[in-house]
Amino acid sequence: MGNTESNAYRNHLSRFLPEEQADIDGVFDTLSGSSGSAGAKNGKATKKTVSLAALQAYVREPLPEQMTVRLYNGMKSIDLTGKSSALSEQIAKEQFVIFMSNLLKGNADEKVTIIMRMMSKTEGPVKGKQIQEFTEDLITSVVHVLNYRKELRGWNLENTRDSASGVKALASQLLSELKLADGTKPVGPQLMETNFDQSVIEDWVYRVPQISVFLSVVIRQGLHVLHSLPDQTKDILNLVPGCKGIKGRGLASLFDIPSIIYINSHLPAELQHKWQLLFSSRLHGESFSQLCGHIVNKGPCIVILKDLDGYIFGGFASHSWEVKPQFQGDNRCFLFSAFPSLAVYTYTGYNDHYMYLNHGQQTMPNGLGMGGQHGYFGLWIDSDYGKGHSKAKPRCTTYNSPQLSAKEDFTLDAMEVWAVGDLPESAGTKGKKSILDADPQAQALLEMAGKSRQSEGLREPLEEDEEDDN
């Protein structure tokens, strides 16, 4: 390319470190079917390009077909001013590099033109329906490629809820942030038919960081480019938290991968690296005292439950749960819904009724609650395990959340509690032993008497420091 390199192209190239440039060169050479130096001596006659077929062959397994076509359309949309358009169906090296530069290193203004061509092959405004299809494809591709590359950090498609409904729920949530120039937010069928111009999409990409992060994951992990270099760690490192405590227990979580990604992004940054299962009604039984015993003094937690109508919802508790008749927690707590819709509801400042846990008291309500007030919680699990309520007419005072359950008073189907971040030292989880471990003589006596160790089946698996394997 020599002297024909434009200044603009060199500026894009300079955004990448030398080892990143080498990585991009290597992938482009593989895609264009050349070995790098071959063809250079013949000048422009054998200028390396990439076809859609070559891109499809390269990412056939890591990425769904429709996302590969979108990536190709995005690359093809880059206008190399003054260049011959004879090879317009092929991707030139400059287009490939500028695509990488804009989507991985650029701001919303630099990304938006490419993203709009990934949504629609024709120039001009895009319809809400096209944005929805692009967003669903993007989320599907993130789940697919992270699973394919074994980057789900202990989660997998077997130990989580089916992701299909989660993809649609997360896409709907991200689309709900689309705002027209006059500030209105179209919804429902109106949203699908509305035309959105470039300035509106640019504003959306700027305000909804997930779009850029997901594109980064799809490009880095799909094309296997720049995936192991330190630059990526800022936005991708804790996209999916490490999962502990579910391996080998035959349990599928109430969470799906898209909802894990979305809920995790709302946690304080220092808690996003790891989730550890503390309680599951399917493992530990349907008992309020079992619930309390597993979650008290374990640090910040996520509570998630499913009612008999199939609604899935919960809350983030920013402090260790303590059994006491007072409200606890702080304004980092939030409530959320995961199905049929996905949304997070943060504190309003109206009151400090963030979280409440009480058991065995005569005078105060016994149960686990978040938001609202006694008898009228945003989320309530009664100590008479199995019953609960989510009251919000019209909204919960503490979190501005609507009714989260299908019916105001609900029956519990299943419940999980996950510790997030590192467990506090006082939790005493390291090498936690049964009383029978501490007294081998007692164990021997039991065995001699023909009694089995009743506590063996309930023993928590000893946690290693590594997250569960995929």
Number of helices: 17
Low-confidence stretches: 35-45, 429-440, 442-448, 451-459, 461-465
Number-wise, the strands total 16
DSSP strand content:
15-25%
The helix/strand class is alpha+beta
Shape verdict: elongated
Helix content: 25-40%
Gap between N and C termini, in Å?
A: 44 Å
Mean pLDDT: 86
The major sheet is characterized as:
12 strands, mixed
What value does the Rg take, in angstroms? 26 Å
Task: Describe the protein's architecture and organization.
The chain is of the alpha+beta class and 470 residues long. It is built from 17 helices and 16 strands. The strands form three sheets. Strands 5, 6, 7, 8, 9, 10, 11, 12, 13, 14, 15 and 16 form a twelve-stranded mixed β-sheet that branches. A two-stranded antiparallel sheet has the order 1-2. The protein starts with 6 loop residues before the first helix and ends in a 22-residue tail after the last helix. Mean pLDDT is 86; it is low at 35-45, 429-440, 442-448, 451-459 and 461-465.
In short, what is this structure?
The protein has 470 residues and is of the alpha+beta class.
